[in-house]
Amino acid sequence: MLRLGDVITRLVQDAASGIHSAEAEAEAKKLEIAELLTRPEEELVSDEEVDEFLRTHFPDPKIPGETAIRAGATYIAPEILRLKVGVEEFPPVYRVLGVRLSEKELAPGKELLPKVKVPVLTPKAVAKVRQQVKKKLGQRRRKALERLLSTGVPSPMVETVSLELRAGFDRELRVRIPSMYDTEAKILPEAIGKVRINMRLER
What we know:
By secondary structure, the protein is of the alpha+beta class.
């Protein structure tokens, strides 16, 4: 069995350890954000996030869940096809991302009209689009991280701590933490009580 003073000391130590761990975690988060802000914008975004952006903004109408930005996929652009009829860009990489693809970044595809072949995306064109997506998303993330760092990462502010523990006392006021399986005869049933501690922390 433990002395009452030992129990109180242990409770105070556990509370202080929990507060210290929370504060250390918050400080580590600040350092992590500061380190991320030193990286290029493209490194702030994962390939999976780029894939999700492409599937959301450039879906393939023929293949559910797939993106139209992939090597071998059709790319329609009025200035490249040189058609007089109204034709909208598809996928609309210029309208959404400001990316212009040149004929050198495309490959000949199927013949749409006599002597008019619809170009398809090459790996080089896909890489160019993906790079722009990373830049766009990276800029957003950088702004969010800068805002978070300037306004402050949430930190634990603990002023008071209240602790309560059910305990059993023997005739010499030594303490035992009882459980539902406790059959220790030295603890009197009427001596089951609580140890309650209220602490105020000053910084």
